[in-house]
Write a structure and sequence with these properties.
Blueprint (H helix, E strand, L loop, with lengths): L7 E4 L5 H12 L3 E7 L6 E8 L2 E8 L2 H4 L1 H17 L2 E6 L6 H8 L4 E4 L17 H13 L2 H18 L19
Parallel strand pairs: 1-6, 4-5
Antiparallel strand pairs: 2-3, 3-4
Length: 185
Amino acid sequence: MSVNARPKIAIDGYLTEQKLAEALKQIVGSSWGGSQLTVPGSKRRWDMWFRDGDLTGVVEYDGDEHYRNTLKIKADNEKDAVAREQGFKVVRVPYWVQLDTPMLKHWFGIDAVIEQAFPHGFISTKIFPASYCAMGILRFERELAALPEVVREAVIKSLRDRGEEHGAEYVVPMGIPTLPDQSLS
């Protein structure tokens, strides 16, 4: 997306849906569509949206429930399919990734400076991939693999750190193939 961005946005603490919406609203300015765009033919809604010329971008902030509940994952897949049919661009922001300058570029193709001191990964959460359902684990693996290398490495480091704190088996499911070194502790 090529929306003209404001020069600098600061996000205090870890990213939440509200902080994400506030940052995007500042970045895209008058292109901001708002929060809660109704999915056509459904009672479901996307968390937020904006326009970029003829393109509509819908944004979802996905908390841990989007990795633990198969019916939530099903609803997400259905919403994504409707978005594709409508010609919308969908950006899903996992709760374990922060919005910073590289991620703004990665997700939205927007160049702006995001000041974000909170690190990527599983820093303060108590919900780790070991708590995900099977479909959530697959989703986590896909999303982790799609991240820029520096962000992916930060997430893996956070899992290793939390594995040392709690025990690897309580943090990462056994046999998760995306981690280069299975021994987190």
